[in-house]
Amino acid sequence: MQTHLRGKDMISTQQWSKSELDTVFEVAKALKRARAVGESHALLRDKTLAMLFFFSSTRTRASFEAGMAQLGGHAAFIESQTTQISHGDTAKEIGEILGRYYDGLAIRQCDWAFGNDYITAVAEASRVPVLNMQCDVYHPFQALADLLTVMERFGDPRGKTINVSWAYASSYQKPLSVPQSLILLMSRYGMNVRLTAPAEFGLMPEIVQQAKENATASGGSFEQLDDFDAGFEGADVVYPKSWGCWMTTEDNEESAKIGAQYSDWIADERRMALAAPHAGYMHCLPADRSIEVTDGLIDGPQSWVYDEAENRLHVQKAVMALTM
Ligand code: CP
Hints:
- By secondary structure, this protein is α/β, with parallel strands linked by helices.
- The protein has 12 helices and 9 strands.
- The protein has a 5-stranded parallel beta sheet with strand order 7-6-5-8-9. It has a 4-stranded parallel beta sheet with strand order 2-1-3-4, with helices on both faces.
- Helix 2 links the parallel strand 1 and strand 2.
- Bound molecules: phosphoric acid mono(formamide)ester.
- Phosphoric acid mono(formamide)ester binds next to helix 2.
């Protein structure tokens, strides 16, 4: 267990060593147990977290806020449009000033080719840890919650196959951050990572390269497919979700047209039956129901979506308790 994490940012899991990530899971399990048995764990009494949102959220906001309260502290919701941030406060000013008021700064800024740079700039100016609540490149707490969920089901995840797959959705051009954080983290833990997507929906090449290197180092594997059904075959975990074709076009209309060619990429019970009999269906939520996934699958016995949503709370509390 690592005990030197006070002050450390969590912008990507890649910044954390395997041993440090193991510590997060160890603490998350202890905090989950403490909550289950009603044991007080006010580890952050008198501490405050700023939660700065440039984009809407249900789970992230609720779980960080609940988590801070359960740790004995307070979380403040700050929204860019209703503050001076939208009128000119710079990233440096936010880091400097909010870093003097709060004990941690959590930020969601998903704008393409901007969000990660913004969070990094705030972190450079901040004297307190900065936690990435999702940017254009990474969604580290989602991936941590997802891996905790896989570990709860299978124990050691080494050798298990996870299919991180694109699926169709019509709502909007979603960030690459969830699939990118998934392939980065699951490959650190020796999983066989399968990335399935149409050619136009590639991820950032440097992230794919890092995932390949992670897999080599961990004894896992990494493969890429472009056939939706083939991605499900024999997988232990399937994670079909939509993302935008950012590497092909930044134009929303063009992206929607390209995506519509693949409107049959919907996760359903027939495809789930191609996976291993014990396989789980995962999705970070919100899902586009009846478009991205059928109700029968997401509400069915192989769906793990509520456990993974719950685990957001536990991994975030662990990282806050360790870093703040
Ligand atoms: N999965 C996730 O980050 O959910 P929210 O967008 O609702 O926070």
